[in-house]
Amino acid sequence: RRAGREAHAGTPRLALLAAALIFATGAAGVLIRRSLLLILVSVELMLGGGSLAFVVFARLRPEGAVAGQVFVLFALAVAAAEAVVGLAILVRFFRLRGTTDIREADGLRG
Questions:
Q1: Closest-CA residue to 54 (of 42, 43, 66, 37)
Q2: What is the distance between the alpha carbons of residues 30 and 19, in angstroms, rounded to a whole number?
Q3: Buried b / exposed e along 62-73 (16+ C-beta atoms within 10 A)
Q4: DSSP letters along 9-66, please?
């Protein structure tokens, strides 16, 4: 074990609780919000909560595995791509409809 790890025994539990709360807040935002922009922000929260959990689990491994951090790096790349594509869709939707309310998206079905 690494020196000083025993002094912070509650830290992984608290960090995982924080990750779960961040993820749950994002999930609630996706399910409750009507604005496309707020839904995109909520998805980013969900990705952030999941990334935090991966970092905590990687930190708990005795050899300090890098797999958790590598997965977080890929999650950040996915989050960046999701933000770019999501904002492009948001801008186009706003130009077409004049609103970001997802209830107006029913007419876009093809």
A1: 66
A2: 17
A3: eeeeeebeebbe
A4: TTHHHHHHHHHHHHHHHHHHHHHH--BHHHHHHHHHHHHHHHHHHHHHHHHHSTT--S
Tokens of 51: 């990334």
Residue 70 CA to residue 77 CA, distance in Å, equals 11
What is the per-residue pLDDT across 6-18, written as a single tens digit (0 to 9) for each?
A: 555 568 899 999 9
Q: Which residues are CB-contacts of 61 (< 8 A; sequence separation ≥ 6)?
A: 68
Does 84 have pLDDT greater than 80?
yes
